[in-house]
């Protein structure tokens, strides 16, 4: 038996989740994960059960019939992502996949590169909070330009996005002991959604008038309204608004978190940082992307995904650690741990750019895999690149709250914009 598990077993059950959570969200959780994978791959506490091996995490995320997203329903209401394999889920997700045209992704990447470079040029060496100025600001501006939010205030969009993410991911029942004011977080999310809904009602009305007048605006709102008005598929204006809001909420915080984690990890090792800077200056995107997504294996935006067990379910069948997960139990698929499982990765502890992204959990897995996977895979590297091009970049420590979410990150640098590669505005 190892150090954590000795302490865990000698701790009162009521205190076990707290000590486990401290290790799960700590700065260096990899030794903790290895201990669990080796000695107790399914760890049970009164509040949650943790799963840490690759095969078991994959089963939890793929078996939506047994491990559901029911915990999202009180946060996201009727939104299809809070449903499992329903007709509405499949219909609305299919519509969104269709209108999030993959042919648009290269243009989105170029636009992200331009916006990131412009944000740092305007900052003129700092000091600057990179999260407010860059890692959140760039995805917000892309949402404004591409998804129909051109008339929204960026500060409002940040509020709408932040409080929805905060409530959904960091204000669940198993978080109650660690959140100062859980009901206050819910109230902030509800207030944000009242404001966002008011904006979206007005947006849909204006885009409808423009369509009827033969002067359509080329954005996501118009694409969805055209489809809605066609009657070809059941997708009413309420669904248009709900999905436009979902695009904002799903884009900003997750992109920011991934960018910060990748940059922070690369910066901790001089050799990795030098390789990343060389890749950032090269014309090919492949080497840079490989470095960034391997960095995110070590420091993912999400260390776990949570699900609710819908009926008594055996997990890890046929192994010496098989357990039956009881109905109603919250399960944490600790995918960060799973990405270091030697049963699924060669040399998992080695930093090895070029691993297949299809064997990672960066964008989730199964029915609830990230809708914007292709867009995120384009945006994230370009925002990271902008930081790597600051040769004398001096970042402070990242301030994170709640949990592992980046909140503030002060940067300074001296490299003038004229010494960095020119990034032209896309046509």
Automatic annotation (TrEMBL):
Q: Which UniProt keywords apply?
A: Heme, Iron, Metal-binding, Monooxygenase, Oxidoreductase
Q: Which family does it belong to?
A: Belongs to the cytochrome P450 family.
- What domain of life is recorded for the organism? Bacteria
Upper lineage: Bacteria, Pseudomonadati, Planctomycetota, Planctomycetia, Planctomycetales
Broadest EC class assigned to this enzyme: oxidoreductase
Note the PANTHER family from the entry.
CYTOCHROME P450 YJIB-RELATED, P450, PUTATIVE (EUROFUNG)-RELATED
What InterPro entries would the database entry show?
Cyt_P450 (IPR001128), Cyt_P450_B (IPR002397), Cyt_P450_CS (IPR017972), Cyt_P450_sf (IPR036396)
Q: What is its EC number?
A: 1.14.-.-
Metal-binding found in the keyword field: yes
Q: Name one GO molecular function term.
A: oxidoreductase activity, acting on paired donors, with incorporation or reduction of molecular oxygen
The name of this protein is Cytochrome P450 107B1
Q: Does the keyword Lipid metabolism apply?
A: no
């Amino acid at each position: 038996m190892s150090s954590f598990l000795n302490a865990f077993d000698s701790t009162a059950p009521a205190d076990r989740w707290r000590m486990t959570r401290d290790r799960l969200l700590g700065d260096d959780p990899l030794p903790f994960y290895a201990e669990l994978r080796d000695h107790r791959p399914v760890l049970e506490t009164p509040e949650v059960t943790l799963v840490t091996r690759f095969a078991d995490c994959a089963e939890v995320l793929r078996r939506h019939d047994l491990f559901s997203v029911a915990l999202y329903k009180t946060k996201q209401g009727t939104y299809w992502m809070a449903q499992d394999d329903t007709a509405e889920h499949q219909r609305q997700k299919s519509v969104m996949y269709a209108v999030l045209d993959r042919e648009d992704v290269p243009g989105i990447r170029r636009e992200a590169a331009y916006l990131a470079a412009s944000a740092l040029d305007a900052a003129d060496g700092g000091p600057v909070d990179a999260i407010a100025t860059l890692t959140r600001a760039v995805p917000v501006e892309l949402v404004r330009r591409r998804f129909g939010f051109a008339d929204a205030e960026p500060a409002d969009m940040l509020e709408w996005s932040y409080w929805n993410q905060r409530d959904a991911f960091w204000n669940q029942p198993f978080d109650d002991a660690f959140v100062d004011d859980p009901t206050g977080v819910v109230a902030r999310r509800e207030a944000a959604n009242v404001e966002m809904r008011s904006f979206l009602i007005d947006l849909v009305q204006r885009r409808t008038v423009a369509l009827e007048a033969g002067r359509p605006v080329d954005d996501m709102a118009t694409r969805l309204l055209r489809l809605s008005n066609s009657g070809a598929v059941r997708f009413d204006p309420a669904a248009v608004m709900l999905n436009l809001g979902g695009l904002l909420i799903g884009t900003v915080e997750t992109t920011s978190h991934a960018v910060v984690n990748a940059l922070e990890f690369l910066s901790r090792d001089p050799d990795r940082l030098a390789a990343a800077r060389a890749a950032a200056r090269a014309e090919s995107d492949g080497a840079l992307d490989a470095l960034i997504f391997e960095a995110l294996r070590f420091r993912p935006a999400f260390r776990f995904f949570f699900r609710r067990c819908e009926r008594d379910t055996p997990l890890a069948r046929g192994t010496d650690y098989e357990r039956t997960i009881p109905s109603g139990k919250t399960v944490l698929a600790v995918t960060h741990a799973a990405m270091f499982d030697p049963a699924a990765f060669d040399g998992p502890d080695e930093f090895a750019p070029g691993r297949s992204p299809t064997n990672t959990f960066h964008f989730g897995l199964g029915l609830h895999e990230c809708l914007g996977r292709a867009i995120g895979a384009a945006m994230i590297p370009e925002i990271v690149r902008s930081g790597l091009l600051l040769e004398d970049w001096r970042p402070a420590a990242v301030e994170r709250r709640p949990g592992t979410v980046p909140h503030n990150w002060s940067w300074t640098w001296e490299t003038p914009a004229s010494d960095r590669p020119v990034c032209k505005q896309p046509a």
